[in-house]
Records
---
Amino acid sequence: MRHIISMLLENEAGALSRVAGLFSARGYNIESLTVAPTEDPTLSRLTLVTSGSDDIIEQITKQLNKLVDVVKLLDLTEGTHIEREMLLIKVTVEGPMREEVKRLVDIFRGRIVDVTEASYVIELTGTSDKLDAFIQAVGGAGILETVRSGVSGIARGERSLRV
Amino acid sequence: MELTGADILVRCLQDEGVEYIFGYPGGAALHIYDALYKQDKVKHILVRHEQGAAHAADGYARSTGRPGVVLVTSGPGVTNTVTGIATAYMDSSPLVILSGQVATSLIGNDAFQEVDAVGITRPCVKHNFLVKDVRDLAATIKKAFYIATTGRPGPVLVDIPKDVTAHKTEYEYPKSVSMRSYNPVTKGHPGQIKRAVDLILAAKQPMFYTGGGVILGEASAALTELVRVLGYPITQTLMGLGAFPATDPRFVGMLGMHGTYEANMAMHECDVLIAVGARFDDRVTGDVSKFCPNARIVHVDIDPSSISKNVPVEIPIVGAAGFVLEEMIKQIKASKKQPDREALAGWWKKIDEWRKLNCLDYDRESQLIKPQFVLEKLYELTAGDAYVTSDVGQHQMWAAQFYKFDRPRRWINSGGLGTMGFGLPAAMGVQMAHPEATVCCVTGEASIQMCIQELSTCKQYDLPIKIVNLNNRYMGMVRQWQEFFYDRRYSHSYMDALPDFVKLAESYGHAGLKIEKPGDVEAALREALKQKDRLVFLDFITDQTENVYPMIVAGKGQNEMHLKPCKAVVPTDRELA
């Protein structure tokens, strides 16, 4: 099953490689990973998407908690949460496709952020599923490049990941 | 007064109460070596290879419970310690490794003797640090010792660039350390302990299965009391030997691949399994789907990630072994419930039947020296009181089977990583820590050659280690597997071109003895043990065909042991010549 695990890391050199190294050393999957400092500059927030059986996910969270640089950890998928990922996609658009792609962008509530005679750059935010759906829908136009930010997430309501 | 980083480092070691450090100098560490020269509180032991330093510090740590300290230079200095660090990591041994690094201005420039020490060691340390500012040095060293020795212990590396050891700042060693991201447990959940006690008292066929965590947690006395109060059988892992006295009849021997028949059968048939400080390693469980099929399992471990990792557990208790076991004793003594003595008597009867098979028996009439015989004699002649280190292979298993350890921290071996070359340098660390004790290194002619250069260190520091070399001219365990699983194709397991170990020992300034007949074994051991002030290298020429039994073949269940020694068909030295 797919899990979104979010953690607060000491903002130290090498902290990220400890997390990444753990996954490769123990043969766990990382589907996506994002990391950036928080409002407290000594802490970074790292969010990763992984998948595995309940046993594997239990081991992953235990092993992550064991890392000295991991301050606190939350499996967002254990409760209600908001998940977002951003996509930047560059597509070739000529002739009638220009209108067609613009309509698609509106339907998905994206934005065209760069326009040339031959291409659009589109920005779209949403769940990973939504981004997948958009990429599929726009596939008719030639995709030149896609950039995805990886998943970020936050728990709904009272549940919070904080020190 | 401002001190240089090098002086600060040495002051930190003094304030930590460090007695010995094991190391080897080099460019990036020279300021530190200069600071060491100017004092005499911390004694430096100069090894012959940095791997030896890590193993020696490890031996020191395992035999004392205090952290072992290693000091090496950058580049090859630190890469040479990696095997030793990984060995310590797998067996949860507290080490602090101090490595020199090129100056901060050169880091990343492929400078001379530069290596990414923090990156290379990351997967095999509990934690590591790169100190970039001398003002962080003392606090980092404090953290390193704290992390290495608390919770589940392990190695911690501190990489120190050369300019940091030259820069000056005020020295103050922190009195305490608190880290928001590292708070090891010290107790255990009372509710879980209560549940466990209820289950333990209701057992009909109970079994204790304990490991190295009991020793690391200084919980031997509590374990011994608990097992004796209950009267339950106990088995111990390779790493756990000595935590509970081996001569107590409640001990049914080691378990696992080369464990006793009675221990493995009792595991297989038990209804309640009490695992303490053990991690259900594959060499213990065999096929996990067949592991303890009838058992409800209680697992006490300080590391939550060890619980339910390989085998699902009914009652997990995350906590320090000593605290949890003492709490269990209290609750059991206060409880109205008592163990079911009748069921227990029946259980013991069953175990005694298994015992009658005498699974460790070997051919005592042999004209060749049987390795088991050497270890039996070693046990007898040292009255079970020696510190025994070992290397890895058949001799390691025989030492574990035949030397009855009654006390913790006496059996020092590389269980997790299985590092050949561990035994001799580890024995140096043990002997440094216990100068009056008898320290024996049980080894083989293949393993000993992996760190043989340390014979020179032993001479320099007058370490009177007794090396018991079980010389069968084969990498015995490799040969055994080739015999069983590769249709006797003995690919590269014969040790050709061996040195004359007696002459080799003598050339290093030690005594050497070669023993070729069973009748000479006892006299040779007596002679060696009598020599309190010098290292004696005992080269026992043993039966090449001997295999380690019993054996559970990898992937088989605990109740599927091979017991009967089959006569091995092994080309002898003469045929190979």
---
Amino acid sequence: MASSVCSALGTDKENLVGKLIAVEENHGSNGNFVLNCLIAEQIQKGGGVCLVALHNSFGHYHNIGTKLGYNLRQLQEKGRVESIEILKLLNGSLNTAHEDGSEQNILFGSEEDTVRNIFHLIEEKIKKILQNIKPVSLVIDDLSDLLCLGIPLKEVLSLLQYCRTLLDSQPGLSLVVLTHVAEGDEQQNLLTAGLCHVADMTVSICGLKTGQSSDVSGAMKVIHRRWDESAVAHEWNRQNLYHFKLLDRQVKVFAPGTASSFT
Amino acid sequence: MNMAVQQTSFQKKSKSRVPYIPGSKQSIQNAQLLVSSGVPSFDHAIGGGIPVGTVVLIEEDKYGTYAKLLLKYFLAEGIVSGHSLIVASQDSDCENLVRELPAPVQLDDSVRTSDSDDKMTIAWRYQNMRVVQSSPTSTSFGHNYDLTKSLDAEILKAADVCYWTGCTGYGQSESRFTNPAYYDLLCTIHNKIEEGQFGVAASPEKRNILRTAVHSVGSPLWTEETHVSSYQQKSDLALFFYCLRSLIRSAYAVCVLTLPSHLFQETSIIKRLEHLCDASVRLESFAGSEKETNPVYKDYHGLFHINQLPAINTLMSHVPESFDLAFKLRRKRFLIEKLHLPPELQETTQREQDDLPSLASGICGVQTRSILDF
């Protein structure tokens, strides 16, 4: 289940409201499991989730959710979960390419308008869930995909900034943002640096340096910053390195060198 | 009466919600719908097959021969399974590519003489050991193809194949693409999905799968205008891949692209494209490299690198048994297998000391003739 990841992150002891968690996914690894585990925890706590799915479809999260013990589609009907699927919107904008004037047309129009439309969509959905339930977690799956959509770095960073303003204006909100970064990609590196600079906690996922292994899927580095509770205050700015192994229905987290097959 | 009601309330769970489509199977591990790539050992390496709704990137070898071959196998498998195809290329003639597709190997020619193996007796202590298999043998899903024969013209005529060789005239005055070719191809795929009712939401009477093959995407021949800067070309490619991902995800479709990655000056764009695809593999052919004459690789034609495997609808992706993979091409099969070093049978310079006349058993004599004393 998801609890091993959450206890490694320290999110089980801590109130997440008003915080920003950055998930940095290095090239050659898959950081999607962190989002799934955080969603699982939020739902277990009785909160709501607003999912901005840029890299995967909503069905992907639903299918993983059924393995981790929750049903996103049912929760969506109850109004506890909302999703914004950019992949679907994009399909729609290919469809309506010949007509014009559609508001959610991502592929056309200026980049600034696209970002503004996405933000308005997020804001609207969050207000909608917050009427039903608190706390709410806004999960953005792969912010760096906006760069691939041809949106300039400046605009992407300002979208992030706008989302952070929601933390203040909408009480009960927390933010989880994943971004992919490859070595040598200047834009992605700048975006990641900008995100980690404002984050309260950074989770960095990378593959093993020496190649792949069947016992360890990758390494996870957790850096805490600006935690106010005393429970984890001594962890301030300490880097905790873990190894993890992804399994079909759970994630195992352990200290480096203590994989089950080694002991 | 009451009892009967109670009994009926226990209902058998409906067996499969996924409709059966010819040429597809469900994964044993995660119930994912898979289609074959046309190369059984390729399927085995990436976890049983290509999941429906995913994009596979093949980074080409230096001369592009083997990558093109993989694309042909992928298309031939589609025709044999009765799937619909889209073939797109700017570098070569698509219709020619389809005409040259290899024919599947009939089962009776591929029966191998296993009798001779049975006669050999194995020492009793090895009898219970697992047979080491570096490549799968069962071919119930996917076929092997004979490169010397091409598919029947009649079968080809009956197949639903759509060609794209360049702009077909979709208006794109305001879109974000600087190169109209990419947008045009996307619209072609989109229209095909709509017309053939391949979308997830559509409900045709008979479900089928759309296979899209894009040959040498991003090669110099894709750039129409010379004044377009390399930066714009790069952002076009990433945007194209992202839109393609969204199209393929929303349909019963799979897409295989080959990318001449050695022609790109910057590696960062290739990494971005790898990230936007679900699976990405790289072929490294020995042709023209010094590895061609290396005795270690003499059984193989190239190395097969796995960069990324699909993790759609699951937490974990498939973990192959080995990442040291190599491929070899035979007339009737393309084999990807674990890289084995060849047995040392001939006398070579490195093994000189073994061939020296051995002393009588029981004496651990020191070879005084050897220069190096271990």
